[in-house]
Design brief:
17-stranded mixed β-sheet, alpha+beta, 6 helices, globular, about 270 residues
Length: about 270
């Protein structure tokens, strides 16, 4: 068996920045218990399992504690690995079948462009519970499919915020996005705290920017955003709202590769 395990950093060109992920290339369908056990063992924010399908690939994503149904950086990592190990030509787009529907990836001048469904953001009242999450006044709150968005007054507040994750855990939501306008280099900045899927802070999150595309379009009327996720590792994304779709572009870098085996499990 050749190499089938790859560790990547997504939404960055620098090693040890961006969002780390493990990418596992499978030759046969494996039980969920096996995939979840490996995700727990590898302890990455996401482990992506890639299985060849008919003219496409099947993707499944696992945090160390549960399966999730949408993951931008895990998809970016899978595309990067498939092109880099020459399983596929980078001249041709990739199609991925997922629980969230069919996703696509293609090489472009700015890196790898992923296409997702827009996560509609609807403005909501800033409740006392939402205000308790951060020590700064919430300028605007929104609900986007499975998570809250809280707008703060400045990039500095987003970067310095230490949200009360115990309050976030009580919400019927995967987590909370903090966001603001950028200081100049970027249109918007954000951070994402999803403790209810087993991650205290996600480093760089493609799915969150599918919600931020809607939120900031309603706030600014801009369809294209240069975005920065200001986690301690940090990452850059180009986000384009295109009707009910969002194109998210970023880069990835490979850290190392190796082999895991199914021998003795089945």
């Amino acid at each position: 068996m050749g190499d089938n395990l790859y560790f990547i950093n997504a939404f960055t060109t620098e090693k040890f920045k961006g969002n780390p992920a493990a990418i596992v290339l499978l030759e046969e369908r494996m039980p969920e218990t096996w995939m979840q056990a490996w995700a727990a063992e590898l302890q990455q924010p996401i482990t992506t399992f890639v299985l060849p399908g008919q003219n496409s690939y099947v993707l499944r994503w696992f945090t160390p504690v549960k399966e999730i149904y949408s993951c931008g950086h895990g998809t970016l990592g899978a595309a990067h690995v498939l092109w880099q190990n020459k399983a596929e030509s980078s001249k041709h787009p990739l199609s991925f079948e997922t629980a969230a529907g069919t996703l696509s990836a293609r090489q472009c001048s700015g890196g790898i462009q992923l296409t997702f469904s827009l996560r509609e953001a609807s403005f909501v009242q800033t409740t006392e519970e939402l205000q308790q999450i951060v020590p700064y006044p919430v300028q605007q709150a929104a609900w986007a499919e499975d998570r809250y968005i809280l707008e703060l007054a400045s990039e500095e507040q987003v970067r310095q915020a230490a949200p009360d994750l115990e309050v976030v855990k009580k919400l019927e939501a995967s987590g909370v996005i903090l966001t603001s306008l950028g200081n100049g280099l970027y249109d918007v900045v954000s951070r994402y705290f999803p403790p209810n899927i087993g991650i205290a802070e996600d480093h760089v999150t493609g799915s969150s920017h599918c919600a931020l595309a809607s939120f900031w379009y309603k706030r600014l009327g801009k369809e294209t955003l240069q975005a920065y996720q200001a986690s301690p590792r940090g990452g850059e994304l180009k986000v384009v709202k295109d009707g009910d779709q969002v194109h998210v572009t970023g880069n990835a870098t490979l850290l190392f590769q190796g082999t895991i085996t199914t021998e003795g499990y089945l």
